[in-house]
Write a structure and sequence with these properties.
about 675 residues, Immunoglobulin-like, 5-stranded mixed beta sheet, 8-stranded parallel beta sheet, alpha/beta, 21 helices, 24 strands, globular, about 20% strand
Length: about 675
């Protein structure tokens, strides 16, 4: 049916894609139809389909302006659509908050950039020049003849916010994995404070964090930061208890800590290799409650006003909390935000050019507060994931609900704007996990009892504009995690927008399977050896990750042996890369950390503006923090570092100095 095919296009339902093998894959009619049904559309109702096609196509030409209008902030030109019979009329564009009133005496003098014919009437799209606008969102009104239409003009910079163009070194950490100096079993903002000071002294310019999103307090073992309760709120477990003003002269807190020590609760969470989230949550929420009760009884007017201001500023996200005691939960968010912002301020005071880089997960859990508070924006029965690739031949279903691309525009994209703004708050950079999501996402859904899927496209220009606008408003750089199958138009747009690409050394190979030269990692790029989805280098070198998979029944011994042989080939390629880049000749029996240091030094010389070392690797960890594709089989998101961060820096002082020196070349 031709009208259904039109609706597929207008609704963003994909037609085909190029698989990682180079094969062009076409989605069946049945698959595309099922994707549309996940958006609540009855594909058997011809009247419904015709009405939607009209609303998404012809009707847009009958409105002077859309609800949201994108313009270039430097040379803004507003697109206005008119009936061609009105060319002799004038046009007024008013931006009341900026005191701007632009008058065009005759529309026929404007440049025509598009046309559309419907019912024998020609509609024209014209460009109305505007004065230079400040970056941001501006309410405007357009008047032609007797028709008045409101729009929100997005004055968009051509690129995201930038820092000075120099080569920088950073660290990536999982905040929870830092050894906690307070003995409470989980890394917190005081541990981050110490790490900032140590990093700055060594010349490190930024710290890339894991997502700090709110998880599930009532289900503490749901530990994945990439399947959060809400991406607009922070995890209270990161609050440093003794860093709070409400810890001062807090008798109840002192008694609670003493009781926790005597009843062995402190012993249960202290110095463990893996975090016991149930015990940690039980302990920390008791202590957090002591802070809150002290605030309620003893806070002065200044602090009460600060809390009130925070609640007013974050009213929308706080109201999404599904809790019995909203005041207590809001207090925890205030404390977490305040401590995170203090860490960023310290980083800048210590001379870091960027400071903290936050990480935004690609989606939220279906039973969390983000989903339930915005349920009308999501699809029915469609999850996001990834198509087949070399690391997952069957594709991946991440179990995260998919946003409906058309519903995203509700209230001038208020949901996505708020999401980006809150995640840029109190940091110097934002990493967007799976940045291809602003262009297209792989939807997973059931089709006649079988797992099915296809790509669905999102309003790319608008989502990209939000990233650029918010980056300037918050003075925050943007990094797009672009690993996997990425369309060329996305890479080009990210590059043109000065969004940092993200390269993982392990995956960067030429057509012969050899690692590419370091010179290939150029310019606007964040380069890493590995990330949270790849085993630490020492574990990778010794195939510990493969042996763990056997121990947990994820692979058979025979498969493990084949993978170990393939890993040996990979290691030989890596050694060839090091020799090619530096002239250093190493062998398979060379010390693992010497190989790592040699590799890192090679990559430090790469032209990539951002080069990131994992604190896990500096700690010479062998256990992975996460094994993709597992949930309860392996203790993901729980492994703690072996050493205090200060001890790690002491051991690696000379190595870090060499890396910094290489970065300055």
């Amino acid at each position: 049916m031709e009208s259904l095919a039109q609706l597929y296009y207008l609704h963003g339902i994909g037609y085909e894609y190029t698989k990682y093998t180079g094969e062009q894959v076409f989605f069946s009619e049945q698959t595309r139809s099922q994707a549309l049904q996940c958006c609540g559309i009855d594909v058997t109702n011809e009247e419904t389909i015709a009405a939607l096609n009209f609303a998404l196509d012809a009707e847009t030409w009958m409105q002077l302006v859309p609800a949201t209008s994108l313009v270039d902030a430097t040379t803004p030109q507003l697109k206005v659509r008119i009936d061609a019979r009105l060319l002799s009329y004038s046009c007024n564009v008013t931006l009341p908050n900026l005191g701007i009133n632009t008058q065009i005496t005759q529309l026929s003098n404007l440049v025509v950039v598009g046309d559309y014919v419907f019912n024998d009437i020609t509609y024209l799209e014209l460009l109305v020049p505007l004065p230079t606008l400040t970056v941001g969102y501006h309410d405007a009104y357009v008047e032609v003849a007797e028709q008045v239409c409101a729009t929100q003009i997005w004055a968009t910079p051509r690129q995201c916010y930038q820092v000075a163009d120099v080569k920088r070194l950073g660290l990536s950490i999982q905040l929870y994995s830092l050894k906690n100096n307070a003995g409470l079993g989980i890394g917190d903002f005081t541990d981050l404070t110490a790490l900032i000071k140590q990093s700055a002294q060594c010349g490190v310019d930024y710290i890339l964090l894991n997502p700090l999103h709110l998880l599930f307090a009532q289900q503490p073992e749901r530990a994945s930061p990439y399947s959060p309760n809400s991406r607009s709120l922070l995890n209270p477990l990161y609050i440093a208890i003794m860093a709070s003003d409400d810890a001062v002269a807090n008798q109840a807190l002192t008694e609670c800590l003493a009781h926790a020590t005597t009843n062995s609760l402190m012993a249960a969470v202290k110095d463990c290799q893996y975090i016991d989230y149930t015990a940690v949550s039980q302990l920390k929420y008791q202590l957090l409650r002591c802070l809150y009760e002290h605030f309620c009884h003893f806070a002065d007017d200044t602090r009460r006003q600060q809390f009130t201001h925070f609640c007013q500023q974050h009213q929308h996200s706080l109201n999404t909390l599904e809790v019995d005691d909203l005041a207590f939960a809001s207090y925890l968010q205030w404390q977490a935000h305040s401590q995170l912002s203090a860490c960023q301020q310290l980083a800048r005071e210590q001379g870091m050019g960027i400071g903290l880089i936050n990480d935004l997960a690609v989606g939220c859990a279906q039973d969390g507060s983000e989903f339930s508070s915005q349920a009308e924006l999501f699809t029915e029965h469609a999850n996001i994931g990834a198509p087949p690739d070399p690391w997952a031949e069957q594709g991946q279903n991440w179990g995260l609900p998919a946003l409906n691309p058309l519903k995203l525009s509700t209230n001038n994209f208020a949901f996505y704007r708020s999401l980006i703004r809150t995640n840029m708050e109190g940091v110097g950079g934002l990493r967007i996990d799976h940045v291809m999501a602003i262009r297209r996402l792989w939807w997973c859904f059931e089709n006649q009892g079988q797992q099915d899927g296809c790509y669905v496209y999102y309003p790319f220009e608008y989502l990209l504009a939000i990233l650029k606008i918010e980056s300037h408003l918050n003075q925050c750089i943007v990094i797009g995690e672009d690993l996997g199958v990425v369309p060329n138009e996305v890479r080009t747009a990210l590059q043109d927008s000065a969004i940092f690409a993200n390269s993982l050394f392990y995956f960067e190979k030429d057509q012969y399977g050899e690692f590419v030269n370091s010179s290939a990692f150029a310019g606007q790029r964040l380069l890493m050896i590995a990330n949270h989805d790849v085993p630490p280098f020492c574990g990778w070198w010794h195939c510990t990750d493969l042996k763990i998979k056997v121990d947990y029944g994820l692979i058979e011994q025979a498969q493990c042996e084949r993978l170990i042989q393939a890993r040996a080939d990979e290691k030989q390629r890596l050694l060839r890369f090091i020799e090619r880049e530096s002239g250093v000749n190493l062998q398979l029996d060379s010390d693992d950390f010497r190989v790592y240091q040699s590799l890192a030094l090679c990559l430090a010389n790469a032209p990539a503006r951002l080069f990131t070392l994992q604190l896990d690797d500096l700690d010479q960890q062998v256990l992975p923090v996460n094994i993709p594709g597992t949930d309860k089989e392996y203790p993901n998101w729980r492994r703690v570092l072996s050493s205090q961060s200060g001890d790690i820096f002491t051991r690696q002082q000379s190595f870090l100095a060499n890396i910094i020196s290489a970065r300055k070349n």
